[in-house]
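Researcher: Can you fold this with nicotinamide-adenine-dinucleotide in place?
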Amino acid sequence: MEKPTKIAAPKGKLGVLTPGMGAVATTFMAGVELVRQKQAVPVGSLTQIGTIRLGRRTDGRSPRIKDFVKLARLEDLAFGGWDIFPDSSYEAASKAGVLDPHHLALVKSSLSKIKPMTAAFDHEYVKMLDGKHVKKGKTKYDIALQLKDDIANFKKKNGCTRMVMLWCGSTEVFMQQHEVHRTPEKFEQAMKSNHPAIAPSMLYAWAAITSGVAYGNGAPNLTVDIPAMQELATEHNVPIGGKDFKTGQTLIKTVLAPAFKARMLGLNGWFSTNILGNRDGEVLEDPGSFKTKEESKLGALEYILQPHLYPELYKKIHHKVRINYYPPRGDNKEGWDNIDIFGWLGYPMQIKVDFLCRDSILAAPIVLDLVLFLDLAQRAGLRGIQEWLSFYFKSPMTAPQLYPEHDLFIQLMKLKNTLRWMMGEDLITHLGQEYYD
Ligand SMILES: NC(=O)c1ccc[n+]([C@@H]2O[C@H](COP(=O)([O-])OP(=O)(O)OC[C@H]3O[C@@H](n4cnc5c(N)ncnc54)[C@H](O)[C@@H]3O)[C@@H](O)[C@H]2O)c1
């Protein structure tokens, strides 16, 4: 793909729509509001705090990323979304129990104004949930058209010049690619005939893409990981990205596993288990939704360790992932990892990780960065899968012939080099011979 010649400035308001206004979406909205009020620092956000080195190490040029690529300002974001429950963003944030009352009090007036639109929902795809705040229609196609109207109305009402949609809804049941996902025509026909291979999340994505709105997928749902959506994204000049925010346990996994491989240390097994008590944990109690999550969490090790290249180190890995719904913990998840590695002459060693994390606190800055980078990508004329955003995903989408890159630091290098490339700066190879000439 050619380098973008001129990137349109981020003028006017950027509409941010989230299907799903639960713990993650409302923590994101509240956090942005607190930063705007100068009550908080956007910790965890590469776009807000991160810098990028340009030129030689001796040049001393390290601007903030948000200034270098001219990202939309937080003041210019307008929030909206859909949920199967009618709670305002403030009520949903209060129920989610992520933020302390003093933070909630500071955002009460602005978050109370954000009310969800009626959702495109079908209990068959999220078995643990049921809500009444949902759209009605004869066919899935009718519902998708209603979503398109919602998008257009939101844009007009809020005076937005651009829009991004980011899925923050629940994890749907496990689905695989089906014949009806192959082309836009087949997909549309399947919506009209209420085909079971069309999940609600796909209706949102179809509505976004065909309205020229960028789409990111924060859950492991299949949604845009199908040829029909990718073709539509190219046709409508829309960037897309996914799947599944890389937040707690997988973040650590994609840091540790590359370290073992870098040092040629072997691995016999990796047992990961979690306890969490938020609604996401409840949804994942259903085996269908858990399977979707499990596939997403399992993929990383195989790709990072490349057992076909290193059979003596990684041929037989016992990799297990468990998620247990345990209400007392709420959003404060505990993730344990037991890692059985081996070193010189095959001597075994163990590593134990106990990460007492906060799920939505880790996810919120990722939502912010994805919104701003997807908007940048669209202004730069990039369309289709944005592989450079793999940094944010557990299960990164790639072109069909490629394997995904999971190593966090390769992902970061790729992201930063993409920004340099967009802006016509030299890429950084880390060769460094020029300093010794
Ligand atoms: N927090 C993390 O660390 C993290 C990491 C990776 C992925 N995720 C994923 O992000 C998503 C959101 O997580 P959460 O903790 O906010 O969950 P949550 O249960 O608090 O919120 C999800 C919301 O989506 C709504 N919803 C479900 N189906 C919908 C539909 N079809 N249309 C509109 N709304 C719908 C639910 O009613 C709920 O309010 C989940 O899929 C989760 O697996 C979260």
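Model: Folded with nicotinamide-adenine-dinucleotide in place. The chain is about 40% helix and 15% strand.
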